[in-house]
Write a structure and sequence with these properties.
The protein is mainly beta. It has 2 helices and 32 strands.
Length: 423
């Protein structure tokens, strides 16, 4: 009996094998994906109950912000309304006036946004890290591109409305695909790091209305070869063009403030035209290895620490007669620098000012008397500065007297940290 039952089970199993072998699932014949889903929107009344704002969006691929809801106008998109959603495309109806802060922040799949002409305000971080957003239209009426508004998007070109007066801090930072941007006449201020890390920008033409370029504004824009600056510009911030690919820098005569390290590590920079400024700040042109030609203003009183260090191709440098202070390492490793004249007004030369200027063969002091050197505490040994060739060897380190380790000061002249000598 048991044998018969076992035989029957085996027979049935064997009979089913061909059926199983013939049954196939073809994944290529699955039905097409359903149409994009539309996000459902939630609304809240404004404080004055004159209209609605979109307060939240449920998950969906597309979204349409209407002109009205419940018979009242939709006036805006609230802070964080779409933040971190998976929306890919958004259309906003005419009549909507503003987009709040963080409204589309970190919408990683957002590719397209259509803005109506009625939009006049876009908040801070509105499209922050929308990595796929490659194109957006900005309507007339917007006066400010807010802080971090388009930071780290995939925008390739942007036409700023003629009404824009300010570009906020980090507004387009790390937009690696941004290759073309126009700056409208009427623009007054470009904020800190506004275009930092925008590696594809090759040219910028600033309007005559522009007054300020912020700190780090175009830092590490490696393909930026050309920047047209016009009269009317008043200040260039620290690190403004540091690490960029700029070839020539013609700084307008209206610039009264030049930030430290403004052109640091601009390896393609070859020539500079400076305005009548009293100070070359710390490390302004440090690491500009291809800089060959620069003329300092006759009004320059102070050359800051490391101002021209590692400018290995700088051959000629005329220190203006008005110069009183040459900072530490100011011309360090300017290996092709050959001849220097120290004007009579100079009373302070920082340690290592000409360190490793290996081709330096002549240093002429217009006022060779009264110089002392030592550490930051004592001035011990009176020096004869009347031998240009010997002084050049001392300055460059060709003679091992450790001049690069000491400060030079001239008797009777007050400089930072030093009291004047008594007669």
């Amino acid at each position: 009996m048991i044998k018969k039952l076992l035989f029957s089970v085996l027979f049935i199993a064997a009979a089913m094998l061909p059926l199983c072998a013939c049954t196939q699932i073809n994944v290529d014949e699955r039905p097409d994906d359903p149409e994009d889903s539309k996000a459902e929107l939630e609304y809240e009344l404004t404080a004055d109950k004159s209209g609605y704002v979109v307060s939240q969006a449920d998950y969906g691929d597309t979204a349409e912000v209407p002109a009205s809801y419940n018979g009242m106008p939709v006036v805006g998109i609230d802070n964080f309304a779409f933040s971190y959603s998976n929306v890919r495309s958004v259309t906003i109806a005419d009549g909507v006036q503003y987009i709040g802060q963080y409204a589309f922040q970190n919408c990683y799949e957002l590719e397209e946004v259509t803005l109506p002409e009625s939009i006049t305000s876009i908040g801070n971080y509105a499209f922050f890290e929308c990595f796929e957003l490659a194109k957006i239209n900005l309507p007339e009426g917007i006066e400010e591109i807010a802080t971090n508004c388009f930071n780290s998007t995939a925008i390739e070109e942007i036409a700023l409305p003629s009404t824009v007066k300010r570009i906020g801090d980090r507004a387009f930072e790390n937009c690696n695909f941004l290759a073309e941007i126009n700056f409208p006449e009427g623009l007054v201020n470009i904020g800190d790091s506004a275009f930092a890390g925008c590696n594809s920008i090759s040219r910028v033409d600033f309007p005559e209305s522009l007054e300020n370029i912020g700190n780090n504004a175009f830092e590490n824009c490696s393909d930026l070869n050309y920047a047209e600056m016009n009269e009317g510009l008043e200040s260039i911030g620290a690190y403004a063009f540091a690490g960029s690919g700029i070839f020539n820098a013609r700084i307008p005569s209206t610039v009264a403030e030049l930030g430290e390290r403004a052109f640091k590590d601009c390896n393609e920079l070859r020539s500079v035209t400076l305005p009548d400024i009293k100070e070359i700040p710390e490390k302004t042109f440090s690491g500009c290895n291809n800089l060959v030609d620069i003329a300092l203003s006759t009004e320059t009183e102070r050359i800051g620490e490391g101002a021209f260090e590692y400018c290995g191709n700088l051959v000629n440098m005329t220190i203006p007669a008005a110069t009183e202070y040459i900072g530490e390492g100011a011309f360090k490793y300017c290996e092709r620098l050959a001849d220097i004249t120290i004007p009579a007004a100079v009373g302070y030369i920082g340690k290592g000012a000409f360190e490793n200027c290996l081709n330096l063969n002549s240093v002429i002091f217009e006022e060779p008397e009264g110089w002392f050197y030592g550490n930051y505490i004592a001035h011990e040994i009176e020096l004869d500065m009347g031998d240009p060739q010997l002084i050049a060897k001392h300055f460059s380190g060709a003679v091992d007297t450790k001049w690069e380790d000491f400060v030079l000061v001239r008797e009777g002249i007050y400089r930072e940290g030093y009291e004047p000598f008594e007669d």
